[in-house]
Each structure stands twice: as structure tokens, then as C-alpha cells.
Design a protein that fits this description.
With 279 residues, this protein is an alpha/beta fold. The chain folds into 2 domains: 122 residues, Quinolinate phosphoribosyl transferase, N-terminal domain (Aldehyde Oxidoreductase, domain 3, Alpha-Beta Complex), CATH 3.90.1170; 148 residues, Aldolase class I (TIM Barrel), CATH 3.20.20.70. It contains 11 helices and 12 strands.
């Protein structure tokens, strides 16, 4: 992860929550009070975001001691102790919610990704994410996908070419769209084209697309697409895929399966921070 970007994200989150200060904590807790905070899991899942949580407390006070007891990518079960935080009670209490928000959200993504990856482990298809991420948190959420065993698709509009249906409509066809984009990009950059039919797939192959995204095709069409392509391009399946359908899609022989649900609608993992005791 880019540590400069993490600091920026953490700073924004703390500013949003703290504003001009923690009225409740600062009114109740003497500045000299020191505590030991325990972050633990109340659920089964996969951990992601421990470094982000550490940076939350360090951002508030560099003197805080943060001890990681679990690493990102490791499995969690109820009662597992994830980390210990030693330092100012004001810092621990004021940073608690922001740190947990990051940990719970990112661990939820890692956990969901892991479930999808487990569903296709018998096949060669790789599970990858999409750009359907929380604005401002993409770098963290895509990191969490990797911690769950998935892979990253493009990070943004700037680092990869993906010609989608609306691009094709505006350009007047796949051939025109591919030719225009190839005239603008370096020779090292691959071109991916989204198609909605086997006819469009054949057109994309004729213009030598490097990757073809097969949008909302059922297993029967996907198998035909794999046979037609014959290894001439990487094939990516996408569109409305769930844990119940992912294995059948992987079994068609596609190379990649992109799943927006890895990031856009995950359930946060249940984690908590307690002062001075382990539950």
C-alpha cells in the first residue's frame, strides 16, 4: 500500500470524526490517564487493515504502543485477540471508532473475497475486483481484496484500457474504438473490450483485443466463447455473479471473474475494542 495515501485517508477520517475534539472523552478522562486497549474479533473471517488501524492511533499520538497479534490475511474466529494498544486513554478512546471502522470494513471485504475464492479453488479462473468501491477508499479496499486471496482489476481510468458498451456506441463500433485507443496508448498497455454477444466477441478477436470482458453471459454462452477464442485472448466473465453461481462460471474455462460484490455490498466483520480486558 502507498503509505502517503494511507496517512491522507486516516487524517481525513479522524478530522471527520474528531472535528475540534472529543467532547465526551476530554470531559471525563484526565489527560494523564494511561490504558491498555484490546482489539478482538467477535466473528469468523479474514483480517485486513491492521496497519491502517495502527496508523490511526499513531496519527493521534506517536507515543502510543500498538502491538499486532494477528497479521492481515490471517483467519479470525470469535475471541481472537487481534491487537493491543497502550497509551493515553484519550487517544485510545478517541481513535477507537475510526480504527474499528477501517478494520471492520476491510476485514469484511477480505472475508467475502475469501468465500468467493474458496468457491472456485478447483478451477484456474482468478477472482478479481472492480471499480465499485467506496469513494476515497479504493486503495484500501483493493488491498483488502488481495488479503482475501483475490486479485485487482484496474485501479482507475488512468492505468488500463477497458472499452465498454457506451464507448463502443459513441465510437461507432468495436473496431473504431480499438483503433482510436491504440493510437493514443503506449505499446506496453493492453486493451480490454467488453462484449455482450458472441458476434461482438468475434469482432473483438479480429482486432486483436488482449482481454475480452464477457458481460452477463450465462454458462452455456461462456463455454462457447471459450471455444471460439481458443486462447487468442484472456476472457473475463462479469455481471451479477454470486457465491451460488460463481463455481459454474469458473467451470466454463474463463480466465478471470470480476465481482463487484467484493467491495460494493459487503458486511463489516464484527470486531470490538475493550479497555483492560479480553472478552
Amino acid at each position: 500500500m502507498n503509505h502517503l495515501l494511507i496517512e491522507e485517508i486516516v487524517g481525513r477520517a479522524l478530522q471527520e470524526d474528531l472535528g475540534f475534539g472529543d467532547i465526551t472523552t476530554d470531559s471525563i478522562v484526565p489527560a494523564s490517564t494511561q490504558v491498555r486497549g484490546l482489539i478482538h474479533s467477535k466473528d469468523y473471517g479474514v483480517l485486513a487493515g491492521i496497519e491502517v488501524a495502527r496508523r490511526v492511533f499513531k496519527h493521534l499520538d506517536p507515543q502510543v504502543t500498538f502491538i499486532e497479534l494477528k497479521k492481515d490475511g490471517q483467519s479470525l474466529q470469535p475471541g481472537d485477540l487481534i491487537a493491543e494498544v497502550f497509551g493515553s486513554a484519550r487517544v485510545v478512546l478517541s481513535g477507537e471508532r475510526v480504527a474499528l471502522n477501517f478494520l471492520q470494513r476491510l476485514s469484511g471485504i477480505a472475508t467475502q473475497t475469501h468465500r468467493y475464492v474458496e468457491k472456485v479453488k478447483e478451477y484456474s479462473a482468478a477472482i478479481v475486483d472492480t471499480r465499485k468501491t467506496t469513494p476515497g477508499l479504493r486503495i484500501l479496499e483493493k488491498y483488502a481484496v488481495r488479503m482475501g486471496g483475490g486479485g485487482n482489476h484496474r485501479f482507475g481510468l488512468y492505468d488500463a484500457v477497458l472499452i465498454k458498451d457506451n464507448h463502443i456506441k459513441v465510437a461507432g463500433g468495436i473496431k473504431a474504438a480499438v483503433e482510436r485507443v491504440r493510437s493514443q496508448i503506449p505499446h506496453t498497455m493492453k486493451v480490454e473490450v467488453e462484449v455482450e454477444s458472441l458476434e461482438q466477441l468475434e469482432e473483438a478477436l479480429r482486432v486483436k483485443a488482449d482481454i475480452v470482458l464477457l458481460d452477463n453471459m450465462g454458462p452455456a454462452l461462456l463455454r462457447q466463447a471459450v471455444a471460439i477464442t481458443g486462447g487468442r485472448a484472456l476472457l473475463e466473465a462479469s455481471g451479477g455473479l454470486t457465491e451460488d453461481t460463481i463455481a459454474e462460471v469458473a467451470g466454463t474455462g474463463v480466465d478471470l471473474i470480476s465481482v463487484g460484490a467484493l467491495t460494493h455490498s459487503v458486511k463489516a466483520l464484527d470486531l470490538s475494542l475493550d479497555i483492560g480486558e479480553k472478552k
